[in-house]
Structures are given as C-alpha cells and as structure tokens.
Amino acid sequence: NLTGWSVETLHDGFAQAHRMDRVLYDSKTEHQRIIVFESAQFGRVMTLDGVVQVTERDNFIYHEMLTHVPLFAHGAAKRVLVIGGGDGGMAREALRHPVEQVTMVEIDAGVVEFCKEYLPSISNGAFDDPRLDLQIADGADFMRETDGGYDVIIVDSTDPVGPGEVLFTDHFYGHAKRALTPGGILVTQNGVPFMQGSELTGTLRAFGSLFRDAHAYLAPVPTYQGGFMAFGWGTDSAARDVDVATLADRVNATGQSFDYYTPEIHKAAFALPGYVKRLL
Ligand code: AG3
To answer: Can you tell me the ipTM of this complex?
Structure first.
C-alpha cells in the first residue's frame, strides 16, 4: 500500500518510492507540477512531474560534480552559465569559486520561488550573491540569442521529457558551443546510463562532432537510481588532462573543501566501465 508515498516511474517497469512524512508544498506552476516533501532517508525532497530532482541529503554529490569538475579543470573561469538549476544548488557550488558572474537561466519562476521558501538549504544564500545573474527564460531561446563569452556552461536539466527536452537537441548543443570562450567547457546531466543509455549516446554523438574532446564522467547519486549518473563533457581544450597535483593546488587556492569532490575523484570520474564506453 503506497498511499502517502511519492512513487517515481521514470523508467518503464521500474519504480522508486519515498514515504512523504509531511507535504510542504504541492502545486502546478505554469510548466510543471512541483511537490516538496519531508522524507525519512533523504530530508526534504523536490519532485517535478513526479520525478525526484533534488534532495537535501544527497544533492551535494550531483551539484559538486557538475560544477567543480569543469571549474577546477578550467582553472581560470570568470563567467559561468547554468541552464536550469532553479533550486539554486548549482549556483551555490559555482559561487564557491572566484568567478565574476554566474548567470542562471531557469524556465520556471515557480521552481525558484518555492525552492527558496521550502528548500533554502539547497541554494544556501546563492540567490542573494551579487555575482548571481538570475534570468527567468527558456534556456534554448537564451542560448540561441546570447552573445556568449562563457568559460563554463553547465546544463542542469530535467530528463528529456517535458520542458527539458529541447536541452538535449543538436541545435541547442551547437548554440552552447558558440557561447563558450576559446577553451571553454560544456557539461551536461545525462541521466543514469544503466537505465537511460540512449540519452548519453545522443549527447556524446553531438559533442563528438562539435568538440575536440568529447567524453563522459560519472558519479553515484543515490537519488538517481541505477548505479552511476553520467555527465557529458565537451571542450576544445586539453582540460581533461589536468593532473591531480594541479587540481589540488587549485582546490587549496580556494580555501574550500568539499563533501564529495576531491582531485582524486575528479580524475577517477573519467574512468568508464565497458558498458558505458560502448554507449559513447
Ligand atoms: N536535475 C537532474 C535530474 C535527473 C533525474 N532523473 C533521473 N533519475 N534520471 C536535477 C536538478 C538539480 N539541480
């Protein structure tokens, strides 16, 4: 009996469920249904159209890996662009670097508003940082029209169903490439390859024709079930070759330490098992 449980059925014939100990918010925005609830294992959880996007307990793994890997590999990023990321977790981590500006383009003002209210620990002050430039707009439109100049672009999308779908097209990736500075890095969330292999294949095929270095890297995020979460990596630079000692120097220079990210994890994340390599 799953009454009072949040049941995610993103993958055919498979479900994961959280008991909703207290529903804090449940409403439809202009774009999607958003629910924030309290769960025993993951703290507060936010779902969009029934799919878990962020939890208090494990969001650090996902957000750290999509920010610190490209930012420390780059080493001198001044301008960062986040597409999506309305909960503010990506901005939170990106702003731990000495960047001049983080532009965040979120399609759904409701997600920003309700996450500020019911999940303040996710953004942890990022929305008040003067370096944050928040724009409520369609990420695909923004990318088509921007003048660019971004050193790192992070695509923090939902899965390729609903509003997130356009963020997985060749067109969008082409515009993102054009928006990068020379040597800039594009990273994307590409789902769980064990369950959603074609998502990674699609992105990496596009990256292969756009970038000199197109690759994937991995991190295990408990919330996104099925083993590793995959991230796309595209750049014309040799940033993937950065060594552990250089990364350690860059981490030390920020005076920060992280809950998941370490220079060793950074390097190891690019090591791919056979079943993932075959998807590229
Ligand atoms: N965006 C990534 C959602 C992927 C979830 N789906 C899945 N299990 N494949 C999360 C937004 C956090 N800022």
So the answer is: 0.93
